[in-house]
Amino acid sequence: MARHVIAKVDEVENGKSKLVKVAGRDIALFNVKGEFFAIANRCPHEGADLCRGQVVGLAEADEPGKVRMTRHGELIRCPWHGWEFDIRTGKSWCDPARTRVKSFDVSVAKGGTLTEGPYQAETFPVSIDEDYVVVEI
Amino acid sequence: MDHAVLDKDTTPEKDPTLEKDRGADARLGIVDCDIHPAFGSPAELAKFLPVRWRDHLADYGQRSANPVVGTLPYPRMTPGNGMRRDAWPPNGGPPASDLAYLQEQLLDPLGIEYGILQPLAAGSSTLNQELGAAMCAAVNDWQLDKWTGPDPRLKASISVTQEDVPAALAEIEARIGDRSFAQIAIPPRTIEPAGRRRYWPIYEAAEHYDMPIGMHSAAYGQHTNSGAGWLNFYIEEHYAFSHSLQSVVTSMVFEGVFERFPKLKLVVVEGGFAWAAPLMWRLDKQWERMRSEVPHVKRPPSDYIRENVWFTTQPIEEPENNRHLLDTLRWVGTDRLMFSTDYPHWDFDDPRYAFKVPLSPTERAQIFRDNAKNVYRLP
Questions:
Q1: What is the value of pTM for the model shown?
Q2: Which of A25, A26, A99 lies at the smallest CB-CB distance from B3?
């Protein structure tokens, strides 16, 4: 396990995503209401780029005509066939046990804490005063 | 469906979506039987229309049998009426309106040796049949000018007005000498069932020139999309494509089209294929009992379907257990199936991942290349 600095916190806005390449993997990083989550970028169904999908909420209905919209901005809908994945867990909504994308542990850290220890900042220099998103792989 | 967790690296050798190494067959030349070219703007089509019809379109528009002018009956779930979200060309315009981007995103990376263009410009379904014929001719010119000329991998469809048979025949005659055209395109929801004799002169010409009739599922048609009227949801329209094509196949069998035109080729495009197996079983069973009603149908219905009809594979059937796809493919017949992507639509199938079952090398070659090369007479 290594920890990789993959973004500055202010470069991915709420509701947006960023594609990052880390240790040979394509990872889609999401900002969900100020929290960061990272999942594998490729849809397990036919391989589309999830970071190019649509961030959506969850539409449910207990009976016809009684629709609830919840979990705004917490699901990513694949840009091709519309599979919906929970950004927090990588599990698909329709088939969570069998169709899911790998989810990675993400944290936010001050630049000052990243200048020593086992961190790897591969793509940009880290400055002491700013906050960074770190993924563990 | 069983979809693997993406827990491997993403190098091409180890493919995480397939969960196995990519074999050498990944480089098999592919024929994609369903590509939808788009106009960059309406002016692109207008350029090929006579002034008379350009003015008419500007003043009166184009009426089809659809209930609302200027829109599809079902606005679809992604921008651009059902496009892949990642297919918008970086230089602007709608998906599949930019040849360079279509080459970069579809033809080159997926190893597509030939692509059959299926323009959905609705000239065939235009109520003003003279306008429809002019639009079909313009779409045919446009395919040559914008697509097949610059990239000979692409093959065009002869769009015709099937409800105005003399006009359709004139358009076929005008195009038939140009091998840039690979089929004659007719939308499935015709005014009368597809097997009726009013359409036979078109089938006769198709057989005579050895040009397949391609019937692509269409939002446009002369009738509602179900026998009970317009269905409510887009999710239902998607399903309705399959029963409109079941009606086409059944009508053509029982009206005796394939008996009268034994070399006619019918390609069922984007209507699904798994249903073809139980349809054949059912038709054969009834034919054994009621053959005397249709004595002109001399052989079991499945005989004609297995000789005269092919099915494109997208949207691929996805049984809960992947292995059942193999049974389905073999029931229908791997000699009847032809791969298609439906690019740039949202329900696109990627040739690398759509078939989540181990096809034999022969079956793979049939479905991805050889059947289509034979049907469309591609070199």
A1: 0.91
A2: A99
